[in-house]
Design a protein that fits this description.
Layout (H helix, E strand, L loop, with lengths): L8 E4 L7 H11 L6 E6 L2 H13 L3 E7 L5 E6 L4 H9 L3
Parallel strand pairs: 1-2
Antiparallel strand pairs: 2-4, 3-4
Helix pairs in contact: 1-2
Length: 94
């Protein structure tokens, strides 16, 4: 699933090693609003396997993982909607 997200926040973790790859990703996600998109540039077998898995385990949506042709990949995540915010949306008339 490839897509353009011009409003997406950007994060480059190509120089990081595990576990800092996901620590930096998690911190970036925490700064975003619920439902916002984060695009992460990453490289290496371990981050390619662990960052999407860890994000999904925390409830974030993996939108895509695409090779960029220079040995790096772009991972696109959508920040999860917190349960409290989800409940507020249900109870708000509209």
């Amino acid at each position: 699933m490839s897509g353009s997200f011009p409003e997406a926040a950007q994060l480059d973790i190509t120089r990081e090693v595990c576990p800092m790859t996901y620590v930096r990703t998690k911190l970036a996600l925490e700064r975003l609003a619920d439902g916002a998109v984060l695009q992460i540039r990453l490289t290496g077998e371990e981050p390619l396997r662990n960052v999407p898995r860890s994000a999904a385990e925390e409830g974030h949506e993996v939108l895509s993982l695409e090779p960029l042709g220079d040995g790096t990949h772009r991972l696109t995540l959508r920040r999860r909607v917190s349960p409290l915010d989800r409940e507020r949306r249900r109870s708000t008339p509209g």
